[in-house]
Amino acid sequence: MKCPRCDSDTVRVMTKSPVGDVWEVYVCDTCCYSWRSTEDINVHDVFKLKPEDICKLQHIPPIPPLKSK
Length: 69
What we know:
This protein has one helix at 51-54; strands at residues 11-16, 24-28, 34-36. By secondary structure, the chain is mainly beta. The protein has one domain.
């Protein structure tokens, strides 16, 4: 299976439905995109990523610690 966002082959099953085989959630280990097997996947070209460009993306800054009272 290929990731619909970055076309990587590093997709794995993250979890399955707790009752029956109703759905599965997949996650891409390359770009961290996740989706459910019941979704109609249509990633617009604007949001597509190339695996070699992922390392160049900005990192989200960490949340600072809460101030103590």
